[in-house]
Input
Amino acid sequence: MDQGFHNIPEEFKINALTHQKTYLINGELIPWEGDFSKVYSTISSTKDYKPTLLGSIPNLTEKEALASLQSAHKAYNKGQGLWPTMSVADRISCMEEFVEQMKTKRADVVKLLMWEIGKSLPDSEKEFDRTVEYIYDTIEDYKQMDRDAAKFEKHGGVYAHIRRGPLGVVLCLGPYNYPLNETFALLIPALIMGNTTVFKPAKHGVLLLSPLLEAFQNSFPEGVVNIIYGRGRILATPIMKTGKVDVLALIGNSTSANAIQANHPYKNRLRLVLGLEAKNPGIILPDADLDLAINECIAGATSFNGQRCTALKVLYVHEHIVDKFNKRFAERVDALKFGNPWEEEVKLTPLPEPGKPAYIQDLIDDATAKGAKILNKKGGETSENYIFPAVLYPVSKEMRVYQEEQFGPVIPIVSFKNIQEPLDDMAESNYGQQVSVFGSEVKTLAPLIDSLVNLVCRVNLNSAAQRGPDVYPFTGRKDSAVATLSVHDALRSFSIRTFLASKDTSYNNAILKELLDKKTSNFINTDYIL
Ligand code: G3H
Output
């Protein structure tokens, strides 16, 4: 495979290292005097393969982890802090200030996205732009939520002014595959609803946050956003053990989510907002438009090398069309261009986890030992930072590639005779995020859709699984998610309904009237935010 070491465009060359020497606590960027970890890209800058040094990040300890929690706790101040009691309009202004500053850092963030996680240039730009749009959409949705709440209701002789209030301190842990977008899709709604946060970036995709640290520092009151660096186990464990975290917001896998939440001593105090792993199937029915199905399955299984929780991770193809599908699909996979993220038309890019090619190779070896064949010529070709996607067929339940979420470039295909087979497999699976179903006959599709919507949370008709558009609910059943994230739902996931109730008496009503007239409460407020 051509690694494209040469011809790195001038604007994307790493001419200076990014040494992240500070961390953000109590509104201060505190210089770190201890150990640092070097950050490497698996992309080479030289003709002879060598990982590229990008910079370094602090290796913080339990002490700084607890200090960051203390800072968030102080800013929340038992619900009495400046941030949780601030007016909605003022919190929105802080967010607007942040997003304006963020937009000026697009080029820096996009460049680091490419180097740190190997995401292609168009996809890195899309991740940035989508995140900016997510922030604007969140602001608009929050305004609407506020407008809807700017009133009193009366039932049974009791007036009520009902709003949504913050939950407290949120520990926010994002994933490496969308280190900006998915992390911010947790952080932004958590913040705007009045919570305070401790945020630890993922293992890969860390330096790309450096250009944004000052924006966080400038835009929010001190202690509202705390950013710490280091190993998850070392930092998250002591934080959780204090019992002072009100929400664990994590996008990652269920094993680490379970391990982290187990440290919390007060289970009912801890809210969970989790986006976890999935094994989304693509089901190709005999009457499917094959060109369309193949196009969508290529995108669904190979975009960002399959490193998406929403990726199609197993394809069920009806036995009547499986040979035709396999042949054409395998050819299409082999035609995908591998290269560095900035190369034109590149579809497959270096894997950020150095151990990933070996893991994928293990899956291939296990499957071929149990009877599967690699259908495409390039399948399994390996270089220092990549393994070309292998299309494996016939895949059976004993194979690891059937059981495990591969989160990388390998595509298992299973054939089926009766639609009940994939339905039973989905019901048995620990996952339940999405499915893609390809077919045209309404007689078949109608009952199928009626069953599928009860096994997963999004059924994609003749299209690849995906999270977006971000206004749609993003959630899952079983080990795939807890709570729902969309622009709209995330505001609810990070808040709770809370209200003032007041008996309809002239004594109370006079007080309410004065509260409204004087506008001294940020909660009791019927203003319409424009
Ligand atoms: O890793 C999971 C992401 O939420 C996937 O988002 O479907 O838009 O690529 P996407």
